[in-house]
């Protein structure tokens, strides 16, 4: 699949790049996409929910009443989970929600996500660019020139670029990431994928290992 290379003014440069069929033209696998997105979402969880158990409650350990003859249940101390203000039974404790996923599964998921975007003609290839200083207006102008303003954008750069990142940071529907950090969730979450020429080479090198 050939795609024209555009400049930041939205004009064709006269060059074309061929999207690697091994990455942008595979048979999509929805199940591995589900697994990869599930892992990504699980890794975002803090896992720091905590409730106090009986032994952690600050309260007297004095037995409330005698064992027999009270006409009711047998009670121990006031920290019992059965009483108001007592500990909680089997409450949440800090934990890591992450789980293991094989490397080949993750690679197939990312290839499947990129293939879906290619099939939707939602992949734009942009020549490499840079900003002299952080300026949101310049980033907005690029989106307008590419006729994708108003859509959720994912800009993929070959390496960290502070000026471009800061220029897009205040925009709700735009995100800038490095090619090495492209993941299934962010690709599918975006309406349009804008990839620079060097980023394509980086993605090829990572997903074709």
From TrEMBL:
Residues 45-78 are annotated as: Disordered. Gene3D superfamilies: 3.40.1370.10. GO terms for molecular function: rRNA binding; structural constituent of ribosome. Transmembrane segments: none annotated. SUPFAM superfamilies: Ribosomal protein L4 (SSF52166). GO terms for cellular component: ribonucleoprotein complex; ribosome. Keywords: Ribonucleoprotein, Ribosomal protein, RNA-binding, rRNA-binding. One of its GO terms (biological process) is translation. InterPro entries: Ribosomal_uL4 (IPR002136), Ribosomal_uL4-like (IPR013005), Ribosomal_uL4_dom_sf (IPR023574). Belongs to the universal ribosomal protein uL4 family. Part of the 50S ribosomal subunit. Forms part of the polypeptide exit tunnel. This is Large ribosomal subunit protein uL4. It comes from Prevotella communis.
